[in-house]
Amino acid sequence: MMDLQAILDDIHDSLSSRRGEGRVADYIPQLAHVDPKKFGMAVVTVDGAVHLVGDAQEPFSIQSISKVFTLTLALGKHGEAIWKRVGREPSGSAFNSIVQLEYEGGIPRNPFINAGAIAITDLVLAGHTPKEAIGEIVRFMRYLADEDDIIVDQDVARSEQATGFRNFALANFLRSFGKLDHAAELVLGVYFHQCALALSCRQLARAGLFLANSGINPLTGHRVVSHLRARRINALMLTCGHYDGSGDFAYRVGLPGKSGVGGGILAVAPGKASVAVWSPGLNDNGNSLLGSLALEMLAARTGWSIFGA
Ligand code: DON
Predict the structure, then answer these.
(1) Residue among 225, 255, 248, 287 at smallest CA distance from 63
(2) What's the mean pLDDT in 46-52?
(3) Less Cβ crowding at N or C end of the chain, within 10 Å?
Protein backbone atom coordinates (compact mmCIF):
# COMPACT_ATOMS: atom_id res chain seq x y z
CA MET A 1 0.00 0.00 0.00
CA MET A 2 1.25 3.44 -0.95
CA ASP A 3 1.72 5.79 2.01
CA LEU A 4 0.23 8.98 0.57
CA GLN A 5 0.68 10.91 3.79
CA ALA A 6 4.40 10.14 3.86
CA ILE A 7 4.68 11.24 0.22
CA LEU A 8 2.94 14.55 0.98
CA ASP A 9 5.11 15.12 4.06
CA ASP A 10 8.23 14.50 1.96
CA ILE A 11 7.10 16.90 -0.78
CA HIS A 12 6.33 19.54 1.83
CA ASP A 13 9.72 19.14 3.49
CA SER A 14 11.75 19.05 0.31
CA LEU A 15 10.15 22.27 -0.98
CA SER A 16 10.35 24.13 2.33
CA SER A 17 13.63 25.90 1.52
CA ARG A 18 12.10 27.18 -1.73
CA ARG A 19 8.99 28.75 -0.20
CA GLY A 20 8.38 32.24 -1.49
CA GLU A 21 9.87 31.59 -4.94
CA GLY A 22 7.95 32.94 -7.92
CA ARG A 23 5.93 36.13 -8.15
CA VAL A 24 2.69 36.67 -6.27
CA ALA A 25 -0.01 38.11 -8.58
CA ASP A 26 -0.41 41.79 -7.85
CA TYR A 27 -2.53 42.99 -10.76
CA ILE A 28 -5.47 42.19 -8.46
CA PRO A 29 -4.28 44.37 -5.56
CA GLN A 30 -5.91 42.28 -2.84
CA LEU A 31 -3.99 39.15 -3.93
CA ALA A 32 -0.67 40.93 -3.34
CA HIS A 33 -1.35 40.83 0.42
CA VAL A 34 -1.08 37.04 0.61
CA ASP A 35 1.95 35.59 2.40
CA PRO A 36 4.16 34.20 -0.42
CA LYS A 37 5.47 31.46 1.88
CA LYS A 38 2.14 29.70 2.24
CA PHE A 39 2.11 26.12 1.02
CA GLY A 40 -0.66 23.57 1.31
CA MET A 41 -1.58 20.36 -0.39
CA ALA A 42 -4.55 17.99 -0.17
CA VAL A 43 -5.11 14.60 -1.75
CA VAL A 44 -8.61 13.12 -1.54
CA THR A 45 -8.82 9.61 -2.96
CA VAL A 46 -11.90 8.25 -4.70
CA ASP A 47 -12.54 6.06 -1.67
CA GLY A 48 -12.78 9.20 0.47
CA ALA A 49 -9.42 9.14 2.30
CA VAL A 50 -8.08 12.64 2.95
CA HIS A 51 -4.39 13.50 3.23
CA LEU A 52 -3.29 17.03 4.08
CA VAL A 53 -0.03 18.84 4.55
CA GLY A 54 1.00 22.42 5.39
CA ASP A 55 -1.62 25.14 4.98
CA ALA A 56 -4.15 22.78 3.40
CA GLN A 57 -7.02 24.00 5.57
CA GLU A 58 -6.57 27.70 4.90
CA PRO A 59 -8.92 29.23 2.31
CA PHE A 60 -7.28 30.99 -0.65
CA SER A 61 -8.57 32.72 -3.76
CA ILE A 62 -9.22 30.01 -6.35
CA GLN A 63 -9.40 32.50 -9.25
CA SER A 64 -9.27 30.69 -12.61
CA ILE A 65 -9.82 27.27 -11.04
CA SER A 66 -13.44 28.43 -10.73
CA LYS A 67 -13.63 28.19 -14.53
CA VAL A 68 -13.77 24.38 -14.30
CA PHE A 69 -16.89 24.62 -12.19
CA THR A 70 -18.66 27.30 -14.26
CA LEU A 71 -17.88 25.24 -17.36
CA THR A 72 -19.55 22.28 -15.66
CA LEU A 73 -22.59 24.43 -14.81
CA ALA A 74 -22.82 25.88 -18.33
CA LEU A 75 -22.64 22.39 -19.85
CA GLY A 76 -25.42 21.31 -17.49
CA LYS A 77 -27.62 24.23 -18.55
CA HIS A 78 -26.93 24.43 -22.28
CA GLY A 79 -25.26 21.13 -23.18
CA GLU A 80 -23.03 20.96 -26.22
CA ALA A 81 -24.54 24.21 -27.54
CA ILE A 82 -21.89 26.08 -25.53
CA TRP A 83 -19.36 25.15 -28.22
CA LYS A 84 -20.98 27.67 -30.53
CA ARG A 85 -19.60 30.35 -28.23
CA VAL A 86 -16.20 28.99 -27.29
CA GLY A 87 -13.63 26.64 -28.80
CA ARG A 88 -11.75 23.65 -27.46
CA GLU A 89 -8.21 24.39 -28.59
CA PRO A 90 -5.19 25.51 -26.60
CA SER A 91 -4.59 29.20 -27.20
CA GLY A 92 -0.80 29.32 -27.12
CA SER A 93 -1.08 32.78 -25.63
CA ALA A 94 -1.46 34.31 -22.19
CA PHE A 95 -4.61 33.80 -20.11
CA ASN A 96 -5.67 37.42 -20.53
CA SER A 97 -4.68 37.89 -24.17
CA ILE A 98 -7.04 39.74 -26.51
CA VAL A 99 -5.22 39.27 -29.84
CA GLN A 100 -6.85 36.05 -31.10
CA LEU A 101 -10.35 37.30 -30.38
CA GLU A 102 -10.34 39.69 -33.29
CA TYR A 103 -8.95 37.22 -35.82
CA GLU A 104 -11.35 34.54 -34.66
CA GLY A 105 -14.54 36.59 -34.71
CA GLY A 106 -15.19 36.76 -30.97
CA ILE A 107 -15.03 33.00 -30.38
CA PRO A 108 -12.43 32.49 -27.63
CA ARG A 109 -10.12 29.53 -28.12
CA ASN A 110 -11.21 27.66 -24.99
CA PRO A 111 -13.28 28.04 -21.81
CA PHE A 112 -10.25 28.59 -19.55
CA ILE A 113 -8.60 31.69 -21.01
CA ASN A 114 -10.28 34.77 -19.60
CA ALA A 115 -12.23 35.58 -22.76
CA GLY A 116 -13.61 32.03 -22.91
CA ALA A 117 -14.45 31.98 -19.22
CA ILE A 118 -16.30 35.28 -19.55
CA ALA A 119 -18.31 33.78 -22.44
CA ILE A 120 -19.11 30.77 -20.23
CA THR A 121 -20.17 32.99 -17.31
CA ASP A 122 -22.48 34.81 -19.73
CA LEU A 123 -24.15 31.45 -20.39
CA VAL A 124 -24.42 30.66 -16.66
CA LEU A 125 -26.10 34.07 -16.22
CA ALA A 126 -28.87 33.19 -18.73
CA GLY A 127 -32.28 33.62 -17.09
CA HIS A 128 -30.80 34.94 -13.84
CA THR A 129 -29.85 38.18 -12.19
CA PRO A 130 -26.12 38.41 -11.39
CA LYS A 131 -26.92 37.90 -7.70
CA GLU A 132 -28.82 34.68 -8.46
CA ALA A 133 -26.02 33.42 -10.71
CA ILE A 134 -23.41 34.08 -8.01
CA GLY A 135 -25.66 32.26 -5.54
CA GLU A 136 -25.96 29.33 -7.91
CA ILE A 137 -22.19 29.08 -8.31
CA VAL A 138 -21.58 29.26 -4.55
CA ARG A 139 -24.26 26.62 -3.89
CA PHE A 140 -22.72 24.40 -6.57
CA MET A 141 -19.31 24.60 -4.88
CA ARG A 142 -20.88 23.76 -1.50
CA TYR A 143 -22.77 20.87 -3.06
CA LEU A 144 -19.63 19.50 -4.71
CA ALA A 145 -17.38 19.87 -1.67
CA ASP A 146 -20.26 18.78 0.60
CA GLU A 147 -19.38 21.68 2.90
CA ASP A 148 -21.52 24.69 3.75
CA ASP A 149 -18.86 27.17 4.78
CA ILE A 150 -17.54 28.01 1.31
CA ILE A 151 -17.79 31.74 0.63
CA VAL A 152 -16.76 34.48 -1.79
CA ASP A 153 -14.05 36.81 -0.51
CA GLN A 154 -15.78 40.13 -1.13
CA ASP A 155 -12.56 42.14 -0.76
CA VAL A 156 -10.95 40.17 -3.59
CA ALA A 157 -14.07 40.53 -5.76
CA ARG A 158 -14.18 44.30 -5.18
CA SER A 159 -10.45 44.60 -5.79
CA GLU A 160 -10.76 42.97 -9.22
CA GLN A 161 -13.95 44.88 -10.00
CA ALA A 162 -11.99 48.10 -9.49
CA THR A 163 -8.94 47.13 -11.55
CA GLY A 164 -10.02 44.48 -14.08
CA PHE A 165 -9.79 46.79 -17.07
CA ARG A 166 -8.50 44.11 -19.38
CA ASN A 167 -11.43 41.86 -18.56
CA PHE A 168 -13.78 44.75 -19.29
CA ALA A 169 -12.00 45.11 -22.63
CA LEU A 170 -12.39 41.39 -23.36
CA ALA A 171 -16.06 41.36 -22.39
CA ASN A 172 -16.86 44.45 -24.44
CA PHE A 173 -14.94 43.02 -27.38
CA LEU A 174 -17.02 39.83 -27.16
CA ARG A 175 -20.15 41.95 -27.00
CA SER A 176 -19.08 43.89 -30.10
CA PHE A 177 -19.09 40.59 -32.00
CA GLY A 178 -22.56 39.77 -30.68
CA LYS A 179 -21.04 36.94 -28.65
CA LEU A 180 -22.11 38.14 -25.21
CA ASP A 181 -25.80 38.13 -24.35
CA HIS A 182 -25.56 40.37 -21.29
CA ALA A 183 -23.89 43.71 -20.61
CA ALA A 184 -20.20 43.42 -19.78
CA GLU A 185 -20.79 44.89 -16.29
CA LEU A 186 -23.32 42.19 -15.43
CA VAL A 187 -21.23 39.27 -16.70
CA LEU A 188 -18.08 40.54 -15.02
CA GLY A 189 -19.96 41.13 -11.77
CA VAL A 190 -20.53 37.36 -11.71
CA TYR A 191 -17.09 36.48 -13.10
CA PHE A 192 -15.19 38.49 -10.47
CA HIS A 193 -17.21 36.82 -7.71
CA GLN A 194 -16.62 33.28 -9.03
CA CYS A 195 -12.88 34.04 -9.22
CA ALA A 196 -12.98 35.36 -5.63
CA LEU A 197 -14.35 32.10 -4.22
CA ALA A 198 -12.19 31.16 -1.24
CA LEU A 199 -11.58 27.46 -0.71
CA SER A 200 -8.95 25.53 1.17
CA CYS A 201 -6.95 22.84 -0.62
CA ARG A 202 -9.04 20.30 1.24
CA GLN A 203 -12.32 21.83 0.07
CA LEU A 204 -11.05 22.25 -3.48
CA ALA A 205 -9.86 18.66 -3.74
CA ARG A 206 -13.26 17.51 -2.47
CA ALA A 207 -15.05 19.74 -4.99
CA GLY A 208 -13.02 18.28 -7.87
CA LEU A 209 -13.43 14.67 -6.85
CA PHE A 210 -16.29 13.99 -9.28
CA LEU A 211 -13.82 14.50 -12.13
CA ALA A 212 -11.61 11.73 -10.76
CA ASN A 213 -14.54 9.37 -10.32
CA SER A 214 -16.28 9.25 -13.70
CA GLY A 215 -18.66 12.09 -12.83
CA ILE A 216 -19.95 10.73 -9.51
CA ASN A 217 -19.02 12.46 -6.28
CA PRO A 218 -17.98 9.53 -4.08
CA LEU A 219 -18.48 11.63 -0.91
CA THR A 220 -22.22 11.93 -1.52
CA GLY A 221 -22.94 9.31 -4.17
CA HIS A 222 -24.46 12.03 -6.38
CA ARG A 223 -23.85 11.89 -10.10
CA VAL A 224 -22.69 15.38 -11.05
CA VAL A 225 -22.03 14.81 -14.76
CA SER A 226 -22.02 11.83 -17.10
CA HIS A 227 -18.91 9.68 -17.43
CA LEU A 228 -18.31 11.11 -20.90
CA ARG A 229 -18.62 14.70 -19.70
CA ALA A 230 -16.16 14.13 -16.86
CA ARG A 231 -13.66 12.78 -19.39
CA ARG A 232 -14.17 15.73 -21.65
CA ILE A 233 -13.74 18.29 -18.88
CA ASN A 234 -10.53 16.49 -17.93
CA ALA A 235 -9.40 16.65 -21.56
CA LEU A 236 -9.91 20.40 -21.60
CA MET A 237 -8.04 20.78 -18.33
CA LEU A 238 -5.13 18.83 -19.77
CA THR A 239 -4.93 20.74 -23.04
CA CYS A 240 -5.90 24.24 -21.86
CA GLY A 241 -5.85 24.32 -18.05
CA HIS A 242 -2.43 25.96 -17.78
CA TYR A 243 -2.74 28.29 -20.78
CA ASP A 244 0.48 28.46 -22.77
CA GLY A 245 2.10 26.33 -20.05
CA SER A 246 -0.32 23.42 -20.65
CA GLY A 247 2.14 21.38 -22.70
CA ASP A 248 4.83 21.70 -20.06
CA PHE A 249 2.40 20.74 -17.28
CA ALA A 250 1.24 17.68 -19.25
CA TYR A 251 4.86 16.70 -19.86
CA ARG A 252 5.96 17.13 -16.26
CA VAL A 253 2.85 16.09 -14.32
CA GLY A 254 0.83 14.04 -16.80
CA LEU A 255 -2.53 14.82 -15.20
CA PRO A 256 -5.38 17.19 -16.12
CA GLY A 257 -4.96 20.36 -14.08
CA LYS A 258 -6.33 23.86 -13.70
CA SER A 259 -4.38 26.72 -12.24
CA GLY A 260 -5.37 30.07 -10.77
CA VAL A 261 -3.41 33.26 -10.16
CA GLY A 262 -4.11 32.89 -6.44
CA GLY A 263 -1.45 30.14 -6.63
CA GLY A 264 -3.78 27.17 -6.53
CA ILE A 265 -3.86 24.16 -8.85
CA LEU A 266 -6.51 21.45 -9.01
CA ALA A 267 -5.24 18.22 -10.56
CA VAL A 268 -7.23 15.10 -11.35
CA ALA A 269 -5.86 11.56 -11.29
CA PRO A 270 -8.73 9.64 -12.93
CA GLY A 271 -9.82 6.63 -10.90
CA LYS A 272 -7.43 7.58 -8.11
CA ALA A 273 -7.74 10.98 -6.52
CA SER A 274 -8.33 14.69 -6.70
CA VAL A 275 -5.41 16.88 -5.65
CA ALA A 276 -5.25 20.54 -4.71
CA VAL A 277 -2.08 22.49 -4.04
CA TRP A 278 -1.56 26.11 -3.05
CA SER A 279 1.62 28.18 -3.20
CA PRO A 280 1.13 31.85 -4.18
CA GLY A 281 4.37 32.46 -6.12
CA LEU A 282 3.71 32.15 -9.87
CA ASN A 283 5.89 31.27 -12.86
CA ASP A 284 6.01 33.29 -16.08
CA ASN A 285 2.78 31.74 -17.37
CA GLY A 286 0.86 32.79 -14.26
CA ASN A 287 0.76 29.27 -12.80
CA SER A 288 1.95 28.31 -9.31
CA LEU A 289 5.69 27.63 -9.44
CA LEU A 290 6.02 25.38 -6.41
CA GLY A 291 2.51 24.02 -6.93
CA SER A 292 3.53 22.62 -10.32
CA LEU A 293 6.73 21.21 -8.82
CA ALA A 294 4.81 19.61 -5.97
CA LEU A 295 2.43 17.94 -8.42
CA GLU A 296 5.35 16.77 -10.53
CA MET A 297 6.83 15.15 -7.43
CA LEU A 298 3.49 13.62 -6.43
CA ALA A 299 2.96 12.16 -9.90
CA ALA A 300 6.49 10.72 -9.93
CA ARG A 301 6.12 9.18 -6.46
CA THR A 302 2.62 7.73 -6.97
CA GLY A 303 3.03 6.75 -10.62
CA TRP A 304 -0.23 8.57 -11.37
CA SER A 305 -0.40 9.63 -15.02
CA ILE A 306 -2.99 9.52 -17.75
CA PHE A 307 -0.26 8.53 -20.19
CA GLY A 308 0.51 5.06 -18.91
CA ALA A 309 0.85 3.03 -15.75
O1 DON B 1 -9.57 37.32 -14.68
C2 DON B 1 -8.49 37.29 -14.09
O3 DON B 1 -7.47 37.80 -14.54
C4 DON B 1 -8.45 36.55 -12.77
N5 DON B 1 -9.66 36.74 -12.05
C6 DON B 1 -8.23 35.08 -12.98
C7 DON B 1 -7.00 34.76 -13.81
C8 DON B 1 -6.33 33.50 -13.44
O9 DON B 1 -6.51 32.97 -12.38
C10 DON B 1 -5.33 32.97 -14.41
N11 DON B 1 -4.75 31.74 -13.96
N12 DON B 1 -3.69 31.36 -13.71
Answers:
(1) 287
(2) 97
(3) N
